[in-house]
Amino acid sequence: MANVPLLDLKAQFAQIRAEVMPIIDQVCASQQFILGEHVRALEEEVARYCGASAGIGVSSGTDALLLALMAAGIGAGDEVITSPFTFFATAGTIARVGARPVFCDIDPATFNLSPPAVQDFIDQQCLARGDSLINRGTGGRIKALMPVHLYGQSADMDPLMQIARRHSLRVIEDAAQAIGTEYKNGARAGSIGDIGCFSFFPSKNLGAFGDAGLCTTNDADLAESMRVLRVHGGKPKYFHAVIGGNFRIDELQAGILRVKLKYLDGWTQGRQRNAAYYDAAFAARELGSKLITPAALPGGRHIFNQYIVRAQNRDALKKSLGDHGVGCEIYYPVPLHLQQCFAYLGYHAGDFPQSERAAAQTLALPVYPELQPAQLAHVVATVAEFYA
Q1: Are 64 and 127 in contact (CB under 8 A)?
Q2: Is the dihedral of CA 250, 255, 213, 231 positive or negative?
Q3: Alpha-helical regions (H) of 189-302
Q4: Measuring CA to CA, which residue among 81, 64, 96, 100 is closest to residue 176?
Q5: CB 245, CB 256: distance < 8 Å
Q6: CA–CA dist 74, 69 (Å, integer)
Q7: pTM (2 decimals)?
Q8: Residue 87 and residue 176 in contact, taking contact as beta carbons nearer than 8 Å
Q9: What interhelical angle do 314-323 and 373-387 show, nearest 10?
Q10: CA distances from 279 to 92, 275, 285, 287 (A)
């Protein structure tokens, strides 16, 4: 029986080991572990890769979101519109700065924040007061939009940006799963809104050897604000006009990520190739509505951080795959509006039906670039056998 883990980073490491180990040695020899030359270079290289003018390396994808919210001046009394179908940090960071997450439902094809749902929320539940947008139900000021480019596919940014401009909202892109993702016309995730937030968690397409992240922006003032805020708001050192946090990326992680960045496009092509294999193989098995493969929108670039199917009898399929040595995972089993810690927001089951349906039906299959043809075939055969 072929063993197919959901992700196997050992093969990737074997490919880059000869380049990575000397970098680690060099950083250790220099003893320059905080904000050194590798950090500066990584920030430039990732900003260029993402089509942004500035990059600010940070300690994690979560801290990237937190830093972006702080730099955008979002805090108590403010509200941020986002998706309930995403990793916890998206809404968790909004709450941590004292603001209120406001959820709008997702598009069922892409699993990303639905622009019509956002517009409907504004039309039905908000009022314009001066140049502020006020939530009628809470009295809070809507200050920002936080779309998520989920699974490696861009949210529909044109209508979201139009909504944001109409109501003077900041746009913070949660691009944690989307480095190299493109929207229309080659616009890259993280370069479209005010700030883009990336995660280099080890399982990401571009993963560090631990936690790391980065913010991108085309706004020089926001870039400067984030650089100051990531070192406790101190500028110059030990002089604090603002309260920040300790959000620095490690020099070691930056050095490792610089090596890996050179391979990223090749790894992305591998993921896209594996996704195309699945698409064709599942179509040939004529599984119809039992298994719906991901919809990659034309004109964009889907990097397949995950390959997500909608599966009939999902939980039983997951067990069957596990029994046959195939790793799979549910991203995400409980939408954020139904998480216990967000009960105070007053949402209920049924409020966001598309997000709830996605939570009940979706499953991630292995798609990492080093998968072998026999492993891919085993995944397809196991799924087809289950539905037979």
Answers
A1: no
A2: positive
A3: 220-229, 251-261, 264-284
A4: 64
A5: no
A6: 5
A7: 0.98
A8: yes
A9: 130
A10: 34, 6, 10, 11
For 148-184, the DSSP string reads: B-GGG----HHHHHHHHHHTT-EEEEE-TT-TT-B-G
- The segment(s) of the chain belonging to CATH 3.90.1150.10 are 265-387
Dist CA 357 CA 33 (whole Å): 45
Q: Which residue has the tokens 């993280």?
A: 190
For residue 293, how far is the Cα from the chain centroid?
Answer: 20
Would the CA dihedral through 206, 223, 189, 360 be positive or negative? Answer: positive
Domain 10-104+111-261 has CATH 3.40.640.10: yes
How many angstroms separate the most distant Cα atoms in the chain? 68
Q: Which CATH architecture has domain 265-387?
A: Alpha-Beta Complex (3.90)
Strand partners, 250: 34
Which of helix, strand or coil describes residue 23? helix
Read off the tokens for 26: 């060099």
Are the beta carbons of 110 and 295 closer than 8 angstroms? yes
For CATH 3.40.640.10, the residue range(s) in the chain are 10-104+111-261
pLDDT tens sequence for the chain (388 residues): 679 999 999 999 999 999 999 999 999 999 999 999 999 999 999 999 999 999 999 999 999 999 999 999 999 999 999 999 999 999 999 999 999 999 999 999 999 999 999 999 999 999 999 889 999 999 999 999 999 999 999 999 999 999 999 999 999 999 999 999 999 989 999 999 999 999 999 999 999 999 999 999 999 999 999 999 999 999 999 999 999 999 999 999 999 999 999 999 999 999 999 999 999 999 999 998 899 999 999 999 999 999 999 999 999 999 999 999 999 999 999 999 999 999 999 999 999 999 999 999 999 999 999 999 999 999 999 999 999 9
Task: Find where tokens 């502020």 sit.
Answer: 132
